[in-house]
Each structure stands twice: as structure tokens, then as C-alpha cells.
Amino acid sequence: MDRSLDQLDAAGFLHIWQHFDADDNGYIEGKELDAFFRHLLIKLGPGDKITEEKVQQLKARFMSAYDVTADGRLQIQELANMILPEQENFLLLFHREAPLDNSVEFMKIWRKYDADSSGYISAAELRDFLKDLFQQHKKEVSSNKLDEYTDTMMNIFDRNKDGRLDLTDLARILALQENFLLQFKIDANTLNERKRDFDKIFAHYDVSKTGALEGPEVDGFVKDMMELVRPSISGPELDQFRVVLLRHCDMNKDGKIQKNELALCLGMKPKP
């Protein structure tokens, strides 16, 4: 691309992102998108006449190549792919062979890096997360660069600027897919429909295939269930809901929720 963009570093990228994601919703879309491509045309051809037709042509060309989700808007990783030099594109580390589509796997990551069980990821814990991620990708990175990347991530994703990340912030970083439970109808009419849905739901969260939900499996189920009612819950709130669910559903008090226990708890089978 352009030489000025070739010199772009993580901090410069953050400045561009914050400028064009004007409503801070995690995407560049609509008028923000047009403004971004107009800015790009100016950078690529200073002095050239900028027309609406040129803006739309450039937009169509780049969106077809970089809008991997094909939703007509740019996520932060997609924009990083477009304008960050490869050596600076630490956001590529969050790309996966398959999307993170299971809250159980997400909660495993959350529990590992929320080392002090505070219900939040501090800057130091985020730094550990990034360090491990670089090692997994066999990439060498200096301590100063790691600090810079940590600061950049906090600036991008710490929406309330309290110096820590909550569940929703980390879900944005890892591009967690849509809540699995949204596909099921609450008002499924027949008992057979409800039983079929229950079997699908339990199988989704029983990642270990033991016939019981435990640890991050319970966490993932609680997270998705509560977010049906409240779009955003905090780590401490999730822990509270988890305790309540176990108190009501863990009949034999083994710290797990068996399939028959959850069925009973959700009214899927008559009490003995």
C-alpha cells in the first residue's frame, strides 16, 4: 500500500481506529466506512480529485477482499489486515482456523488469565495473555513491544476506561460468535420440541462428553443463559449466577450438573 501506511505502528493504528469508529461500537460501518475510504484515497493519491464514484469503487474493492464476515462493515481485525504492516499486526494472533463459537472454550481462557479471580482481566494479566499468544505462534517480541501492544489493547477494548477488561471486552477481542442459545425458541410448543432443543443445548455445553457440566462448561452455560436477559454481564455477576445455578440444580452436591439434574431443574422431566 502507501509508504505512509507502511510506517504505521500499533499506536498509529489505534488513532485511525478511534477516529473512524466514532460511535465506539466496535465496527466501522455506514458513513464511518465512507469517511475511512475517502481518507484512504487522499493518503494514496494526494492532490487527486476525490469523487464519490472513486470512494465507492475503492470501498467495493477492499471490502470484497477484507470483509471476511461479509456483513458490510469492518471489524478491528479486518482493518488491521488492511492497513497494518505484517510485523506490527499483532491482532492477527487472534485469528483462528475456526471461529470461537463456544462459550465453554471462551470461559477456559477467561478463567486461566483472570489469575486472581477478581472477575476482571488487569493490564498485567492481559500482558501474560499476549505473551503466551506470541509464544504459541513462535513469534519473538521484546518486553517494550509487549508493553506497547498491551497498552494498545487496553485503549481499544477497555470501553469504560477503568484499566481492566470485563467479560464483554474479552469476547470482543476474541471475536466470540453469537450466543448459541439465541437459535432456540422459548415458546417451543410440544414436549418433543422442548426435549430435542434440550438435548442439543446440553450436548453443546458438555464439551468433555461426560454427561455432566463442570468447571468452564457450567460457566459457558451460565454466561449464555444470563446474556439472553442481559446483553452484558460482568465476571463477578457470572460467579454469582453460577453459585445460584449450582445451588438449585446440583442435586447430589458434587459440584457438577448432570444431564438429568439440569432437565429436572428446567422442568423437562417430572420430579420423582
TrEMBL record:
EF-hand domain mapped to chain residues: 8-43, 101-136, 145-180, 193-228
GO biological process, one term: regulation of presynaptic cytosolic calcium ion concentration
InterPro entries: Calbindin_Ca-bind, EF-hand-dom_pair, EF_Hand_1_Ca_BS, EF_hand_dom, EFh_SCGN
Cell compartments where the protein resides: Cytoplasm
GO cellular component: cytosol; dendrite; nucleus; terminal bouton
SUPFAM superfamilies: EF-hand
Record-linked CDD domains: EFh_HEF_SCGN (cd16178)
Any one Gene Ontology molecular-function term assigned to this protein's record: calcium ion binding
Pfam families, per database record: EF-hand_5, EF-hand_7
SMART domains assigned to the protein according to its UniProt record, in alphabetical order: EFh
Keywords: Calcium, Cytoplasm, Metal-binding, Repeat
Matches recorded under PANTHER family: CALBINDIN, SECRETAGOGIN
The name this protein goes by in its record: Secretagogin
Organism: Ameiurus melas
